[in-house]
Amino acid sequence: MTTSPDTVVTAAAVPPGPGDAPDPGSGGRDRYLDLWRAAALVRVVAYHVLGWIWLTVLFPAMGLMFALAGSLMASSLGRTGNSAVSRRLRRLLPPLWGFAAVAVTLLLVTGWRTAPTAPLGWGELVWWIFPARTPPVGGQSWAWAYNVVLWYIVTYLWLVVLSPVLLALFRRWPWHSLALAIALPIAFRFNVVNVGGYFNEQATNVSTYLACWLLGFAHHDGLLRRIPARRYAVAVAALAVTGAAWVLLVGWSSGNYDLNRVAGGNTLWSMAFVATVLRFRPRLDWLGRIRPLDRLIELLNARAVTIYLWHLPAGVLAGALLAPVPVSGWVATVTVRLGAAWVLIAVAVALFGWIEDLAARRRPALVPARVSPARTRPPRTSAASGAARSAPRIAVAPGSGSGWHRAMASVVAVLAVGLAVMALNLWPGVTTRSPDPTARPEVTYRLSDLPMLVEGAPTPSTPSTPSPTSTTVPATPGAVTVRGEVYPRAVLTAAPSRLRVQPPAGCERLRAVIDVGADDAEVTFAVRADDVTVFESGVRSRADQAEQIDVDVTRASLVDLVTSSPSGGAVGVWADPRFVCSP
Prior knowledge:
The chain has 16 helices and eleven strands. By secondary structure, the protein is an alpha+beta fold. Strands 1, 3, 4, 6, 9 and 11 form a six-stranded antiparallel β-sheet that branches. It is globular and about 80 Å long. It starts with 30 loop residues before the first helix and ends with a strand. 45% of the residues are buried. This is Acyltransferase family protein.
């Protein structure tokens, strides 16, 4: 990649954040930044649909999205003053309200009857209207899909509301502000700063991504382009090494490399990645010649809010619909799962994407119109340029500094790939899991509460609470007594049979007690994660004691509980099966 001469970036050169869209007459869009934002959105979808933790360290998309949104917010404030806040909220909230109308109605109709446990009770629903906190959902096993990703919308809203003050402070003390923003999440991590109370989670999230938001301010004002190449490269490399070391230390001790759970290290690593991306300004003339790709990037940017809001419910629904479909092989499983999710996302975009047009005061359209690429302008003719001129100037180092830039990008890329390899536990001869991992809080999902598909079971003819000696499999889970102990959520399956279920996102373990449900039968139990056997019991009979199993199903899209019997007609007892997940 090559860099262009130092120029002030105008509003036309910055892609939108949540709820943003190009303003009429802005002169088009910067395809380089649009390309990164589209890639970040695709990465977010892949992470939530497939559960690939390694993607978070290979490509810290959330930090990049906040930085690009911060750059555009600085541009809007320069053009329209504090009214930019209301304009950003106007573009953000209507798509959220459309999503809320469907989500809350669905949750209420399907049995949400208990008030949220938070202080406001049913009053917590106000956060579906103005998301200063993550809005609540019901207790259904799938309800989490409708609010677990809304932390980003909440954090974005807070940063938008705070931006007039933040930008004024940044332009007065740019580097001091940026240094303080980098230190803040570290202070939160070590409890030097502790907001506590009702908005503690929101304060923590804002502190985590504040530095990336301010880096967007610096990008808009042209400060990043005026730092000498050697100084810039050394600073970014230092951030990258420190952030990567922090992530590696946490991952090594806990076995969890999810960047979203590495407070402090998340900010440093995201900053290094974002600073590398924003330093370059390559020409993308080739992109215009690949019209399908160019148009896809444009559509992803034009419907980013709708895609973000609906992608997780679409992914969960895709998994449920695909549960009965036999798919073998890793590549086929990933392709089918992602393909189905994107088809459902496209349906959601067709149904609700027009709300983004109304929010931006454009004519509603099923497919957004094309937007021309950014046109070159004299930098001193825009309001944003005047704002940038008021910011402190830094002398430009002689020469292009391309060697320093290549070295900087190489360091970040090598560290990103290294962290991803460690997250996959693929480093030869090295395990990334500590023998004494730090205890973490857990969330449990009962298998009986999740959508299940049982193949090979006979039609039930007994009550839903059978004796384990019965050879008939119940249609729904029920209570059984195993070796004198009652299990209220047991699942009985015929042998041979296969029970297929999609675990909730973030689930790492499957725990259950297995036993044979007839005195004269033999049963083999197996657990398969994405068609790979991760547990097999061997042949068991009633003479064997019941066995507690604890199986690793991390990153599994589908889990199969398989029973087989050499004689047939046997019953396998999965007593109290449950998925254990990180919160």
